[in-house]
Design a protein that fits this description.
Chains A, B: Belongs to the NADH dehydrogenase family. The structure is a homodimer of 462-residue chains. Chain A is built from 13 helices and 24 strands. In chain A, β15 and β16 form a beta hairpin.
Chain lengths: 462, 462
């Protein structure tokens, strides 16, 4: 989106979105890294440095889940379910992402008692995160607090981390995301897991320490602060030409839709806004998109070619087809032994399972630690438990996109609203069928590519 | 301001101000604390926990200024002034507060070369800070980036801390607020100091550790996060009734205009917004205003009485007339040996000098470490150096208010714009005369008090 961004960026702000476009579809992109180990490491939580304490606490918490189904593994476990007197059918949703929030929004709260457990008290419109990094959109424009859904009781939402599931007693084991000393359980009649996935560092420690993910609001805020900081630092007397060049180099690891769109927003910002307030810096800024495979791999080859040609035409942007194997304070290191300096590193290479998914050892999972579900989204062999969105694996596999999760949430809302009255209808529900609305990606300079079911578009019309 | 705030608070957001009212005048309030020592301690910088790194770095930096006027005290000192080839008269402003920003805004940049050094890259509309804590206003609504003033060269603004002044060579010794390893000097022909004052902890260590100031955007953001956190924590199963009561108690230390207005905003939020989303919490919330002397001491006695009666009528608000002598993690301790628990502590008790003012030992200062200036705002005995706003002491003394600083900035802009052409006019400038526009303070429930030169108002008309 090309608008006058710089004053807004400087103010840590922006205008409200005039119109929120089609949610850009996302594919499970592989990204520009050499896969050393595919299992998640302990340091997987976001490195965002200025995260609100709530998010920071939540992210610390999820990195250390306890074993599931065992009271012993849950110190301070409170065996009494919350609100034991309530006899209505309790539908408990874990996670406030695309799937969980969609289910919360469309479920008929008059017919079932809906509650939610999530470390994040809001829904995030993730496809527009990149726009908030450069001030095109304000952070608040892309979030919706879950309490705006008007839970009738404060206790219907818990800002907590789920540390396990006691499937025999139908209890969720929770730990407050705000104060780890509060541990309790929440009883469910029906449980829906929408815990998503996390950024994948491929066990490269330097990523968490020196890079930024682009998955949470705190990530976008940290990128914005870091960009501003580097622009101001680059003006300081005494900064060498080489150091100025490094400060003004943004390396994006991962050429999927997220990486390409972040690069596009950054390019627009540099072309449109930067010259007004930093006239002498503009010639020094570089955007480096690192992707060993084709960029936008999930799109049609003609669209990919269009996008790549657009990007290569730009003076301020380059594509580097290499594998990153290490990240140090000021450099990314490639598999071929070369390096590239960076001032800001944005890491958008792929997905790893959530710690909860890893820890639920008795749940059936595929190689990516996604919960195996049937055509009604029921977790195979686990009574009264469903999964949706990125953390759920259907056959055949669906892409890990916002679109899929949102549709699954609507589907479950229509099915599960019968829980209190017509259990036969729930048991014999028709299968979930995904009809893609298509994919699109913004590539900068007012151009986008659209991979729609009926036609392929690129350029201004897309 | 009574508007629907809660969804906005939850979203860390709010709407733009429809109209910014008269800047509430501020007096040098003494506040509800026992003065143990009146000199500033080393831990004086804000405790805001989620401050952007730039601000955090700046605030760390200012706590350790070096001695002024000595090259030896400034390791890494760069002796060459920036832009030595520029022969225009260089007016350098230190500080981007009410005084400095007003001068920057009104100075004639065609006639003098204006540049600014400030650790904060924006101007902050401080009287509305309280409104941002509860979501009535968004943070961005009350700040204005200095680069929006269109410096023609990036180097005309330095996000830096001033660590000293070499008056013989007319050099400012600077340290980057973003990276302490960058140290350099900036040459001035004329220097204006608008470095303000800092919150006064009265050497009570616990204030910085457990309380919030209300002086910077980072403070307001931290208060907002803390309020939200406590509301969510108070809903968690397993939280005792006593602990819930503590979490929902906000103690405001200081009954000046800032404290009273923060309490008013909080009261409106509790009455208007809270019941919608936290219906069962509303009876547990308490606001405690601690002030050993009269509240709003700078106002007329009838206005004070009106405000106090309004506050005492509220179920959720009390005034405690005691001295605070210590602050621990969950309690304030009074001089009479009693204590009061708090969930959130907001500390708005008075002002202490900036570290730069303390360190400039050869500058003439009064007991409050304010620079002694003459009627033209020239620092006595220091050639080509002016001071304005809170850090400047005129005779007779003027209050430390936004209004005074803003008027002084306009005055200096008109005087100093002649620097390049008519030095005689500058030397013989008419004295600064302060004509008060009056004071006002919002006390909640749509009521305010106005202490105007012509009349005293209270209630809806104020």
């Amino acid at each position: 989106m090309l608008t006058g961004n710089l004053p807004k960026l400087l103010a840590f702000s922006g205008s409200a979105p005039s119109a929120i476009g089609v949610a850009a579809a996302r594919s499970l992109c592989s990204g520009g890294v050499l896969v050393a180990h595919s299992t998640p490491g302990p340091g997987m939580h976001s490195a965002a440095r200025d995260a609100p304490r709530a998010v920071a606490a939540a992210e610390e918490g999820v990195a250390n889940p306890t074993r599931s189904g065992s009271d012993d593994a849950h110190p301070g476990y409170v065996p009494e379910p919350t609100e034991p007197g309530d006899r209505r059918h309790r539908l408990v949703i874990v996670g406030s992402g695309w799937g969980g929030f969609s289910l919360l929004k469309y479920a008929d709260a008059k017919r079932v008692h809906v509650s939610m457990v999530s470390a994040r008290p809001f829904f995030l419109f993730t496809p527009l995160l990149a726009s908030t990094c450069v001030g095109t959109l304000e952070f608040r424009s892309i979030q919706e607090p879950v309490r705006n859904m008007r839970f009738p009781n404060e206790g219907d939402f818990h800002q907590a981390i789920v540390t396990g599931v006691d499937t025999s007693k139908q209890l969720l084991l929770c730990q407050s995301a705000l104060d780890a000393s509060y541990k309790y359980s929440v009883h469910y009649d029906t449980l829906v897991l929408g815990v998503g996935m996390r950024p994948n560092t491929f066990n490269i420690e330097g990523v968490t320490k020196y890079g930024h993910f682009l998955k949470e609001l705190a990530d976008a805020r940290a990128i914005r602060v870091h960009l501003l900081r580097n622009l101001e630092l680059a003006c300081e007397p005494g900064v060498s030409a080489e150091e100025r060049q490094r400060l003004l180099t943004v390396v994006i690891a991962g050429g999927g839709a997220t990486g390409v769109e972040f690069g596009a927003e950054l390019h627009d910002f540099l072309v449109q806004d930067l010259p007004k307030l930093y006239p002498h810096l503009q010639d020094h800024i570089r955007i480096v998109l690192v992707e060993p495979n084709d960029i936008l791999g999930a799109f049609d080859s003609r669209l990919r070619t269009f996008a790549e040609r657009k990007i290569r035409q730009r003076r301020d942007m380059t594509i580097v087809r290499k594998f990153i194997v290490d990240v140090t304070e000021k450099n990314v290191h490639f598999k071929d032994g070369t390096t590239h300096p960076f001032g800001v590193l944005v890491w958008v290479t792929g997905l790893a399972p959530s710690p909860l998914a890893v820890s639920l050892s008795q749940f059936p999972k595929n190689k990516q630690h996604q919960f195996v579900v049937d055509q009604q989204l029921r977790v195979t062999g686990i009574p009264n438990v469903y999964a949706l969105g990125d953390c759920a694996a259907m056959t055949p596999a669906l892409p890990c996109t916002a679109q899929v999760a949102e549709r699954q949430g609507r589907y479950l809302a229509s099915v599960l609203s019968n829980l209190g009255s017509d259990s036969a209808a729930v048991a014999s529900a028709p299968p979930f069928v995904f009809k893609s609305m298509g994919m699109m990606a913004y590539v900068g300079d007012h151009d986008a590519i659209s991979d729609l079911p009926v036609t392929k578009l690129s350029g201004k019309d897309a």
